[in-house]
Amino acid sequence: MTTAGRYHLTLVADGREMLHGWWASEAVARGKFTAWVGRHGDRPGARITLTDDETGTPLTTWPDSA
């Protein structure tokens, strides 16, 4: 986990990691997740994932199915 926060958001498009962000608040991270889907969801091959870095558990992904 980074000092920036426990909740890690990633955007992968066409198999390349494009963006990362970390937040201490799950509520804030989920808001960012929704914003990223709206802003970047139309990129070819986009996959957005929110992970709890403390447990290693993916909390949500977009799109829902790979």
What is the element layout, followed by pairings?
Elements: E1 7-13, E2 16-23, H1 26-40, E3 47-52, E4 57-62
Structure description:
The chain has 66 residues and is of the alpha+beta class. It has one domain (7-62). The protein has one helix at 26-40, and strands at residues 7-13, 16-23, 47-52, 57-62. A 4-stranded antiparallel β-sheet has the order 2-1-3-4, with helices on one face. The chain starts with 6 loop residues before the first strand and ends with a strand. 12% of the residues are buried.
How far apart, in Å, are the first and last alpha carbons? 26 Å
Main sheet overview: 4 strands, antiparallel
Strands ordered across the widest β-sheet: 2-1-3-4
Order of helical and strand elements: EEHEE
Instruction: Enumerate the spans where pLDDT stays under 50 for 5 or more consecutive residues.
Output: none
- Our count of helices gives 1
Category by helix and strand content = alpha+beta
Q: How many E strands?
A: 4
Name the average pLDDT.
93
* Rg calc: 11 Å
Hey, roughly how much beta strand do the residues contain?
35-45%
Number of domains: 1
Question: Helix coverage percent of residues?
Answer: 10-25%
Quick one: overall form?
Answer: globular
